[in-house]
Specification:
The complex is a heterodimer of chains A (113) and B (115). Chain A is mainly beta and 113 residues long. In chain A, 0% of the residues lie in helices and 58% in strands. In chain B, strands 2, 4, 5, 6, 9, 10 and 11 form a 7-stranded mixed sheet that branches. In chain B, strands 1-3-8-7 form a 4-stranded antiparallel sheet, with no helix packed on it. In chain B, strand 5 (43-50) and strand 6 form a beta hairpin. Classes of the chains: A mainly beta (113), B mainly beta (115).
Chain lengths: 113, 115
């Protein structure tokens, strides 16, 4: 089983739709969680951190469920510019007190006019 | 404040040659991370360095790959005797501190093609 698993996608939705992605992680020692977006052939960029209480940033809402070990990302009123690959990132403490960062393989989202 | 810089952006090598990838972190950042991304796959952690120290190299292949982050100058990821399977995008990220809550800022990547 992969340490971080995401919806495989691709998601192809019309502009204005609401879309949700899920991500599950296997290590209960995971300490912090993030969503990044990656445009084609570009570097990943932080979209938002995910907090235990859930958090919202404009049209984006992220939630964490530690008991079930999953995080989610909800995008409301999707725009054409939201088309990208969304990466779930889980950060856990590795040996030597070093960070160990696990990236999901990404969910591809395509918004159509 | 310039972001994370990587060079070269594209690198072509023949099998058996050496590849050197450079990463200059953001100003004030002393923690550097290297990742590899194969086509159509996610990023895979390779190594985490702090100035002059390798903190975590659990993702590095045991042979041919090495990394350093000297006191002065950029971090370097070195791949000796490259093979076709090394063709990938190599991303560097930096953060000001190394805690689990720290955001990592990514460079534009170096795309390595091995012929």
């Amino acid at each position: 089983r992969k340490e971080v698993e995401q919806d495989p996608g691709p998601f192809n939705v019309p502009e204005g739709a609401t879309v949700a992605f899920n991500c599950t992680y296997s290590n209960s020692a995971s300490q912090s969680f993030f969503w990044y977006r990656q445009d084609c052939r570009k570097e990943p960029k932080l979209l938002m951190s995910v907090y235990s209480s859930g958090n919202e940033d404009g049209r984006f809402t992220a939630q964490l469920n530690r008991a079930s070990q999953y995080i989610s990302l909800l995008i409301r009123d999707s725009k054409l510019s939201d088309s990208a690959t969304y990466l779930c990132v889980v950060n856990m403490r590795g040996y030597s007190s070093a960070s160990k960062i696990i990236f999901g393989s990404g969910t591809r989202l395509s918004i159509r006019p | 404040n310039a972001g994370v810089m990587q060079n070269p952006r594209h690198l072509v090598r023949r099998r058996g040659q050496e590849a050197r990838l450079r990463c200059s972190p953001m100003k004030g950042h002393s923690h550097v991370y290297w990742y590899r991304q194969l086509p159509e796959e996610g990023l895979k952690f390779m190594v985490y360095l702090q100035k002059e120290n390798i903190i975590d190299e659990s993702g590095m292949p045991k042979e041919r790959f090495s990394a350093e982050f000297p006191k002065e100058g950029p971090s370097i990821l070195r791949i000796q005797q490259v093979v076709r399977g090394d063709s990938a995008a190599y991303f560097c990220a930096s953060s000001p501190r190394g805690g689990t809550q720290e955001t990592q800022y990514f460079g534009p990547g170096t795309r390595l093609l091995v012929l």
